[in-house]
Amino acid sequence: MGTKTQPQQAKENERRIRANDKEFNLQYKYHNNYIKTSKYSVFTFLPFNLLEQFQRLANFYFLCLLVLQLIPAISSLTPVTTAIPLIGVLTLTAVKDAYDDIQRHLSDSQVNNRKSKTLRNGKLVDAKWSEVQVGDVIRLDNNQFVAADILLLTTSEPNGLCFIETAELDGETNLKAKQCLTETIELGDHHDALWNFNGEILCERPNNLLNKFDGTLIWRNQRFALDNEKILLRGCVLRNTQWCYGVVVFAGVDTKLMQNSGKTQFKSTGVDRLLNFIIIGIVLFLVSICALFAVGCAIWEGLIGQHFQAYLPWEHIIPKDYIPTGATVIGLLVFFSYAIVLNTVVPISLYVSVEVIRFIQSFLINWDEEMYYARTNTYAKARTTTLNEELGQIQYIFSDKTGTLTQNIMTFNKCSINGRTYGDVIDLRTGEPIEVTEQQTIFHNSPRNPEEVPTGTAASTSPSTSAKQPPLILVHKAEIHAKKSTVMVTAEGETQLASSPSSDRAEMEPPSLDSQRNPRGRKQVRYSAPSRSQEMEPGGTIPGGLSPTGYEKQRSSSRNSAGGLGVCFKRSGPGLMQRQLSSTSSSDKALQCVDFSANPHHESDFRWYDRTLLDAVRSDEEHSHVFFRLLALCHTVMAETVEGKLEYQAQSPDEAALVAAARNFGFVFRSRTPNSITIEVMGRMEEYELLNILDFNNVRKRMSVILRRGDSVVLYCKGADNVIYDRLHGGQEDLKARTQDHLNKFAGEGLRTLVLAERRLTEQYYKEWRTRQQEAALSMDSREERLNEIYEEIESDMQLVGVTAIEDKLQDGVPKAIANLQSAGIKIWVLTGDKQETAINIGYSCQLLSDELADVFIVDGNSVEEVEKQLRQFKESIKIYNRFRPGGTEALYNSDSNMDPLSVTMTQTSVFMHESSTPPTPPPPPAISVVTFSAECNDLFGDEKRSLDGGAASIVIDENTGFALVVNGHSLVHCLSPELEIKFLDIASQCKAVICCRVTPLQKALVVELIKRAKNAVTLAIGDGANDVSMIKAAHIGVGISGQEGLQAVLSSDYAIAQFRYLERLLLVHGRWSYYRMCKFLRYFFYKNFAFTLCHCWYSLFCGFSAQTVFDPMFISVYNLFYTSLPVLSLGIFEQDVSDKNSVEYPRLYTPGLKSELFNIREFIYSVLHGAFTSLVLFLIPYGVYKDGVSHNGYILSDHMTLGAVVATILIVDNTAQISLYTSYWTVVNHITIWGSLVWYFVLDYFYNYVIGGPYVGSLTQAIKDLTFWMTMLITVMVLVAPVLAYKYYLLDVHPSLSDKIRQKSLKKIHSRASSDVRRTPSSRRGRRSVRSGYAFAHQEGFGRLITSGKIMHKMPQDFAFPLGLGTKKTQALHNNLTSADQTKASNSSGHHMGNNNNTNQRHNQNQNHSSMADISAEGRVNGADAGGSGGTEDLSPRAPCQDLDTINL
After folding, report:
1. CA distance 285 to 1089
2. In the sheet that 684-694 helps form, which strands lie side by side, from edge to edge?
3. pLDDT-derived band of residue 91, with 50, 70 and 90 as boundaries?
4. Distances in Å between the alpha carbon of 1381 and those of 418, 538, 623, 1376?
5. Which tens digit of pLDDT belongs to each residue from 1142-1190?
6. By the 8 A CB rule, do 145 and 114 touch?
7. β-pairing verdict for 123-128 and 115-120
8. How far apart are CA 265 and CA 1036, in angstroms?
């Protein structure tokens, strides 16, 4: 075997590793586990950094100038003027680069010095991660990071299972199961056996494929296949497993995590790149000017200068024998002299100033209190100082989902039990549901005056109404059949009822209270009973705690007093029920969550605000007990006790949320074995025999458990609504219709829904079914199909129990941030490793997707041909839509050429706030099927007939109308191929939003690179995990969120923030300001320097092109350093056209940055021409005045030094006047620097000439004594300023920009927001026209097989023995009563509302087919009536996803 395994014999495409054999592995020179992300070392820093800095064209240009200035024959300026600024820039940049690299060194050191238990010479030793090598056997303990990519050998679990969390790799926090080879399980925790393990691994070369591994283990003369299920990757965390051992396969840079991390790229801004281009142009301009002046000098010397050698002698190096030769040499020397004199057009101080401005702007970002996250005590941090203005030019945002848009926390939000909803909190002013955020809860629980009004919360109102704050109250909605009725209490104490018309009419008693009789403001609210079957609770009481007698009395009283209201309330159903809810006038008690402290197993962070559900549970209400018992039993969650506290480990956060909800309501899942489940119900232990788990998968879209307790056998099932509804028994149409409305409401609110059902089984039926199930499980042919048929058989004729609605909590402010960023013209792409349904749900929840979209395209083809076919059909759909949609969005804005741009922006904002009137509705386009073109898609117009029958819904043209694209990871591979990337980009660029799901980290980077390359767009990537690092590095700007998934993203980012919502302020405020300031700075800087430098050009016409300077050489040296640097720095640091509040409120202000309108070639040329005109006026007017000029006392004024001093002084005064006109936002610093620099000029000129003894001593002093100087200065400045003022006011009056209009309105103190006095409550969720199912399984397939086989257990299956005679007779009798009660109710209601059932079934069947846009829109209008409105204010934070793939991928 020795010769066979030599390195030269090994195949190129395979890797050979022998466990515990260091010498064998060293011959292949595999990388060790050392990680290095830093760029420099102590010895390489200086040469490498200087080499990198001189790659910048400007630095190299100034180095060449410095060399020229060291030559005395051609230098007219001292080399100090260039050397000091150049050294300063290089030093400043080097210090910054050194600091950044030190941070990288510290990060590398932290990772490399982590400890890992490694097997050495048969003993476990603590070794650094950097010392781990390929072939080492290492041990991992629970909750420990995996140090390298390892082959799993053995674990603490009997079947070789272990569980890992892969958040660092793909962003998913749900657990994944890995299992080692059964042959290596026997190694156990025996160090000797593990040390003697000498298996040889043949595997693939290092690559970046996270979900693929191919290899073979050769051990004991046997070969064992290895796949991805046996590999633990670096970055994963071991969970729910005490320990495991593995052999290192890939280490260091070879690990899949590092292979996906991408390379660190040098990033520069668009302004930098433009500056480099401009500098090239300026250098060419200088070369041409210098060449022109060199020719002019040679001609002048040849014709005139040779006759004045007595006065102007030639240098000794000039040949004097032949005049043309001498003149040519002089001209050549003058060429370099002018190159030095005119170099101030682009002085080194420009780059010093740019670096200073960026540096201080970075501190302004770091110090912004508005981006401070108190919960984690985290400020925003600019980790680079070179990219600030690029934040104001972002065109594409690429965002991760998990942990970036969402908190990755599932919460039990609402539910429907037996036709009644629970969990709503109503704003009584508007009657709309609101979301009580954690921030609001903390605020309202704090002691305060009841008359105070909270600001920035859901209850905030406009200033005019803030003094009278209506109370918020927890209101339960009573559902009547298929319609919804909500009782609301207004601020004045009146009751209002929103209900659909029905045949029956009932009246409601007005509240017998007023502010005097009831100072606490108690409200009495009465509800209609949902149905006759629910009117009487067990024991003869009415829901709400009234006796039948009192109930009838109140009905009579209600009728008698109704006339006092003057309103007739329409009500379906024969009876009324009463429930009293109280609230103080303040919101303190109204927003308090339900107290679960009576439950010893409750979770302190669980929030629920509707007490009626807890009251129902505690009063032993039958349906609520069945509901929570199902949640506590129907799952695959594992329970473990950690430090005396019960903790759950779930494969998906959805399941964990449901089991946790049951736990808090008193149904505590305690433990499980392969054949039993133990729960604690209201303090009583209940043990169930687990007969079967019919596990979840993406085809079944449901899971069931079959349990036995005593003599009863029951099947509990939960799944997607369309799947469960098709399997319910008849006779519950009324319940199904009401529950369907609740589903529509929950789906419209963006919640992830599951329908719960049960079926009582007889022992005989179950035994027969069990026999058939075992036969199918053992069959060799079509096993899966036969099992599915058996499962279908038993999962039928079920009784509907209820609906759960859970929320994948978005981070606060995400929808508002996304809406504002999209309004600013930025396109947002979501790139996530999550599955398609989850990604789409979040898209709707954060309003990246909305029902205003004309279509949502889903690319899910598995081959190039299928993907190409889908893209082609999508393009046809877009063409048809655009053909029949008149004008598009621009039509709305351009319909009136005189429309106020501010009004347009306000209209846009109001559309988002849902506070404006309905926009104009154009003629409808032909109905396009809003469907997924799957691989076997129908013809484009296959549903045209049905669409026309249903009627086409008119399209509202607003900012939300457009298309969205959803791409699966396997399809994205083909979309990124050279033959399809153009088509993919063509469609994606026409879409308002793009979501890519199931993508690898490297694919994220490839998508970013594609947009950068093909669209030449400025990109920003934002993420929070290691799986986002490659994307962050690839984008122009990388933003890391310091979130749940570690700090890898932050350490690789350019900017770090704590929450996604801060990205809005980072871009719309700091980004826009930085870009605006930098552009204004550059325009003024080039203006003042061309005005200064070109004076030499005009003077050269009068000095024989001799490179003689107009100004004092010292003035030239310090002009940019002392006289004009501080005012322009203040402009670049503090300038702003509008406030930060207006920058966020009017996102269209961001648009100029997208188009690079504020600084481009045109603006640069304008600055150059303006500077040239200024220099011409600056020189010619004083020259004309002082040439042959004589003072009043007879002194001659026409000397060179006086002219130079006068021109220099007027130049400084003009600079002061111009920058005063440039400045829009005045601060104390601006005043000090602008006026102080003017005074500073006179002080320094006096000091230099009189104290130091400069050559121009007395020139300015004599000039200012004469009136001629002052008149010359006044005339010159007026000539220079007048055109600027005229042009500025012309633009302001005739072509005002949006910022101009906002400033004018701010000055007039007109707060023009197109909104009503009472704003709509935040987080009222937007109803969706096409979405009904949002089933909440976030995993591909469950743990059911592992549980029932016992492989997932800490004990072996044979260790469990299910005891006979479980439960007491009393408990068994209770279950029998429950069963009989259900059967009785089912029989009683079987004959009601058959028509409704037919309609419901029709709806479900219709959803299985393609739906036209008209159909879906029409359904959305019906469902939208139940959704309670939409929109929101700044705190808008809608609920989480609720869209099922089935409803999109029809």
Report:
1. 15
2. 420-422, 406-417, 799-810, 752-761, 712-719, 702-709, 684-694, 676-681, 667-673
3. confident
4. 14, 11, 11, 8
5. 999 999 999 999 988 999 999 999 999 999 999 999 999 999 888 877 7
6. yes
7. antiparallel
8. 9
Q: Which of 476, 745, 498, 457 is nearest to 1321 (CA)?
A: 457
In DSSP terms, 994 is beta-bridged to 829, 965
Catalytic residue positions? 400
| pLDDT tens digit sequence for 15-33 | 899 999 989 999 988 998 9
Cβ proximity of 366 and 382 under 8 Å: yes
For position 321, what pLDDT does the model report? Answer: 66
DSSP state letter for 925: P
Q: How big is the CA angle at 356 (ends 379 and 1092), to the nearest 5 degrees? A: 150
Output the pTM of the full model.
0.66
DSSP designation for 160: S
732, amino acid identity: Q
CA–CA distance, 86 with 352 (Å, rounded to integer): 9
Q: Return the minimum-mean-pLDDT range out of 125-134, 484-493, 675-684.
A: 484-493
DSSP single-letter state for residue 1330: S
Measure CA 401 to chain center.
7
Tokens matching residue 239: 């969970």
CA geometry: angle 459, 462, 466, nearest 5 deg: 65
DSSP letters for 1144-1209: HH-GGGGHHHHTT-SSSHHHHHHHHHHHHHHHHHHHHHHHHHHTT-B-TTS-B---HHHHHHHHHH
Comparing C-alpha atoms, which of 605, 145, 160 is closest to residue 412? 605
Give the count of beta carbons closer than 10 Å to the beta carbon of residue 46. 12
Tell me the average pLDDT across 376-401. 89
The radius of gyration computed from the CA coordinates of the chain, to the nearest angstrom, equals: 39
- Residue 1028: what residue type? D
Give the residue from 258, 261, 263, 184 showing the smallest Cα distance to 226: 184
Measure the CA–CA gap between 380 and 1041, rounded to whole angstroms: 9
Q: 912 φ, ψ to 5°?
A: -65, -40
3-state secondary structure 251-266: CHHHCHHHHCCCCCCC
DSSP E strands in 746-825: the ranges are: 752-761, 799-810
Closest listed residue to residue 1158, CA positions, set 1069, 1073, 1071, 1080: 1080
Maximum pairwise Cα distance, the chain: 133
Per-residue tokens: 900: 């106020």
Which 8-state DSSP code applies to residue 240?
S
N-terminal to C-terminal alpha carbon distance within the chain = 58
- The dihedrals phi and psi of 913, each to the nearest 5 degrees, come to -80, -10
Cα(80)–Cα(90) distance, integer angstroms: 15
Q: What is the 3-state secondary structure (H, E, C) of 1237-1300?
A: HHHHHHHHHHHHHHHHCCCCCCHHHHHCCCHHHHHHHHHHHHHHHHHHHHHHHHHHHHCCCHHH
CA-CA-CA-CA dihedral for 1372, 1375, 1380, 1386, to nearest 10: -170
Q: Tell me what the mean pLDDT of segment 399-412 comes to.
A: 80
Q: Which residue has the tokens 């024989």?
A: 1104
Question: Would you state the pLDDT for residue 170?
Answer: 65
| Residue 804: pLDDT over 90 | yes
d(CA 617, CA 666): 8
**Which is more confidently placed, 572 or 1222?**
1222
Nearest to 957 by CA among 924, 1004, 997: 924
* Alpha carbons 1163 and 1155: distance in angstroms, whole number: 13
Tokens standing for 1194? 């007879």
Token pair for 470: 């209506």
C-alpha distance from residue 280 to each of 363, 681, 1166 (Å): 32, 79, 18
Q: What pLDDT does 515 receive? A: 35
- State residue 811's pLDDT score: 83
Tokens of 1250: 């009189």
- Residue linked to tokens 């200035």: 69
